[in-house]
């Protein structure tokens, strides 16, 4: 028999009601608005929104709804007569019927069928909500990125720029000292000279700007910036020695994508490069972790709770476990393991779900 696949696509806004808020915390992943306040428009009496107002608007929107998207697949066997039979790994409606009513999907009436369809629909939306917050903005980017052997060297450059910006933003607590060395490379301490903050700040600003422009150009990060900044940087870069463009699949680029998904873009601030450095250190720690498994450890327990709260009082745990497995299979959220392939043993697949729920 031939295996035939069908796809159901979801792409719309989920408005939170009591059901979703019971199993999904919309504020678990804090959306951070970058510390940048729009300038007042010329000849306009309208005052620009403050950072606090922008943050409050984003918070209210975050608490109210979420746009989700994703695909769910169904696989069926087609015999010579054209009859279709679900592959057990994809028979989500059969397991849902067993969990809700303890009978198969072909034995339930019209009203029960509608309840099964809505039950599966809500479970899918719940999974997509976790995908939107936990997968699309962080773990999914870790899963798709390629390894960069020069990551440690790149982090050192970012740390260097971060420290420059820290000194620039806190010049009152910084100092610049000129030192002279003798012919043996030994500092002549008696000739050291301290430069006052009001004098060294313009020098430090020019140097830090150059390092920042080199960073933006090296990672082709112009797309994150306002047009006026792009023009300034391109003009300044054209006067510097030719800079190397980093490959788009580098860890730095993926870390920048993660921050951008949180509305944190690469402006000329200590705040941004401190956050970027922190994310890169997290990437190093995550290299040995499986992002899919980490995602499932977050989402599966809440999906399990949503199933149990709506299940028949005497449902079988095996049906619940296989319902969860079929939901993950149909959404392609399963680790790449031989034992979990289509021809794998059912008990092994159930054990995988049990492991996620421990």
Question: What's this, in brief?
Answer:
The protein is mainly α and 358 residues long. It is built from twelve helices and five strands.
Write structural notes for this entry.
The protein has two domains: 2-144 and 291-357, no CATH class; 151-286, no CATH class. It has twelve helices and five strands. The protein has helices spanning 18-23, 51-64, 92-101, 110-144, 151-169, 197-218, 227-237, 251-260, 270-286, 291-310, 317-330, 346-357, and strands spanning 2-15, 65-78, 84-86, 176-178, 193-195. The model is unreliable at 32-40 and 145-149 (pLDDT under 50). It is 53% helix and 10% strand. Helix 3 (92-101) packs across helix 4 (110-144), helix 3 packs antiparallel against helix 11 (317-330) and helix 5 runs antiparallel to helix 9. It is mainly alpha-helical and 358 residues long. A three-stranded antiparallel β-sheet has the order 1-2-3.
């Amino acid at each position: 028999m031939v295996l035939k696949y069908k796809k159901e696509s979801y792409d719309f806004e989920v408005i939170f009601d009591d059901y979703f808020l019971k199993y999904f915390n919309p504020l678990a992943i804090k959306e951070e608005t970058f510390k940048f306040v729009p300038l007042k428009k010329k000849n306009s009496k309208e005052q620009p929104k403050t950072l606090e107002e922008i943050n409050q608007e984003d918070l209210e929107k975050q608490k109210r709804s979420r746009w989700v998207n994703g695909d769910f697949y169904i696989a069926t066997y087609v015999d010579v007569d054209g009859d279709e039979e679900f592959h057990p790994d994809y028979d989500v409606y059969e397991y849902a019927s067993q969990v809700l009513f303890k009978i198969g999907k072909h034995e339930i009436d019209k009203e029960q069928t509608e309840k099964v369809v809505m039950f599966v629909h809500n479970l899918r939306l719940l999974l997509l909500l976790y995908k939107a917050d936990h997968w699309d903005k962080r773990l999914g980017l870790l899963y798709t990125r390629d390894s960069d052997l020069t990551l440690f060297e790149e982090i050192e450059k970012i740390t260097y720029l971060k420290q420059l910006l820290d000194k620039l933003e806190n010049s009152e607590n910084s100092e610049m000292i000129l030192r002279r060395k003798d012919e043996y490379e030994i500092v002549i301490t008696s000739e050291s000279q301290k430069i006052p903050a009001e004098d060294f700040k313009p020098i430090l600003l020019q140097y830090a700007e150059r390092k920042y422009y080199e960073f933006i150009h090296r990672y082709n990060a112009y797309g994150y910036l306002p047009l006026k900044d792009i023009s300034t940087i391109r003009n300044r870069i054209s006067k510097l020695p030719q800079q190397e463009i980093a490959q788009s699949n580098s860890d730095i680029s993926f870390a920048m994508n993660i921050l951008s998904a949180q509305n944190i873009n690469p402006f000329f601030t200590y705040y941004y490069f401190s956050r970027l450095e922190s994310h890169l250190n997290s990437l190093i720690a995550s290299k040995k972790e499986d992002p899919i498994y980490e995602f499932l450890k977050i989402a599966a327990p809440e999906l399990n709770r949503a199933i149990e709260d709506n299940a028949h009082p005497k449902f079988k745990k095996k049906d619940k476990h296989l319902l969860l497995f079929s939901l993950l299979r149909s959404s392609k959220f399963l680790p790449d393991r031989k034992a979990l392939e289509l021809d794998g043993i059912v008990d092994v697949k159930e054990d995988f779900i049990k492991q996620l729920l421990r």
